């Protein structure tokens, strides 16, 4: 009798939360060996591959997938109100317990379920910022990119290394067609920087967000980069071409537009 892939997917989710990621990874490997003809299980195993949790090295930086080991650094960002505000995905009223729960859940998450991925950016052994993709949509092949690097490390080369390693992941590893960003109008310099990296300014979403500190509504600057622009951008391709990158970042993968369909085989 063939296995119920939907039930196994739910079971693996419970295993991750109760016994940890390693147990779920071991279980799906054993199941795919037992049922090698079951395409849905093989597809599910793809998302449990250890490569999704390995650090990404590019130029002078390293991206480490966010997990509880990064608690002290993340908490230091939470208490830096201005920095956390620009990142948008660090709620201002977060408690230490809340943060640890978020980090634990993220460390065990698979992308089709969480629809997001976050890395801590390192320069040598020093954490210097965050890079993330949120609202990952496989049907439309889109995601929102959010990045923040501490001001004391905000050099052009470190920022470029972080951006282009993240974009290589988005367009090749995740197979996206469009990466977009929403930037507060108070952070015009960030929008200008991303335009220099090849992003196009699409427009302004007027009075989209209420700012407690400014006591006013803020506009959001909407920017985006298409896969074809990523490939055609001479500056982008020259820059990333100088760096050694493994197949994980350089091979474009094609995921189904509905991941649940592939899990069912």
Topology:
Blueprint: H1 5-19, H2 21-34, H3 39-48, E1 56-58, E2 61-65, H4 71-78, H5 81-87, H6 96-108, H7 111-114, E3 117-123, E4 126-137, E5 142-149, H8 156-173, E6 178-184, H9 188-196, E7 200-211, E8 216-226, H10 227-232, H11 234-241, H12 247-250, H13 259-263
Parallel strand pairs: 5-6
Antiparallel strand pairs: 1-2, 2-3, 3-4, 4-5, 6-8, 7-8
Helix pairs in contact: 1-2, 2-3
Describe this structure in words.
The chain is of the alpha+beta class. The chain has two domains: 1-48, no CATH class; 53-253, Aminopeptidase (3-Layer(aba) Sandwich), CATH 3.40.630.30. 46% of the residues lie in helices and 25% in strands. It has helices at residues 5-19, 21-34, 39-48, 71-78, 81-87, 96-108, 111-114, 156-173, 188-196, 227-232, 234-241, 247-250, 259-263, and strands at 56-58, 61-65, 117-123, 126-137, 142-149, 178-184, 200-211, 216-226. It has an eight-stranded mixed sheet with strand order 1-2-3-4-5-6-8-7, sandwiched between helices. The longest helix has 18 residues, at 156-173. The model has no long low-confidence stretch (mean pLDDT 91).
């Amino acid at each position: 009798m063939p296995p119920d892939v939907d039930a196994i997917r739910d079971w693996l989710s419970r295993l991750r939360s109760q016994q940890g990621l390693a147990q779920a990874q071991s279980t799906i490997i054993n199941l795919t060996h037992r049922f090698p003809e079951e395409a849905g299980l093989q597809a599910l195993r793809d998302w449990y591959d250890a490569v999704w949790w390995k650090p990404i090295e590019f130029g002078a930086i390293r991206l480490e997938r966010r997990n509880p080991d990064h608690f002290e650094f993340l908490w230091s960002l939470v208490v830096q109100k201005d920095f956390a505000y620009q990142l948008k995905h660090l709620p201002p009223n977060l408690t230490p317990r809340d943060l640890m729960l978020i980090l634990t859940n993220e460390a065990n998450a698979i992308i089709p379920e969480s629809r997001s991925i976050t890395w801590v950016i390192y320069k040598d052994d020093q954490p210097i910022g965050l890079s993330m993709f949120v609202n990952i949509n496989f049907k439309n092949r889109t995601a929102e990119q959010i990045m923040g690097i501490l001001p004391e490390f905000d050099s052009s080369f470190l920022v470029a290394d972080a951006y282009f390693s993240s974009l290589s992941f988005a367009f090749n590893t995740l197979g996206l067609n469009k990466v977009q960003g929403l930037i507060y109008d108070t952070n015009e310099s960030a929008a200008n920087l991303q335009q220099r990296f090849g992003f196009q300014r699409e427009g302004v979403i007027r009075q989209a967000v209420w700012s407690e500190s400014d006591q006013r509504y803020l506009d959001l600057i909407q920017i985006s980069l298409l896969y074809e622009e990523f490939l055609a951008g001479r500056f982008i391709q020259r820059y990333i071409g100088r760096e050694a990158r493994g197949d994980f970042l350089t091979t474009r993968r094609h995921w189904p537009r509905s991941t649940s369909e592939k899990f069912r085989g």
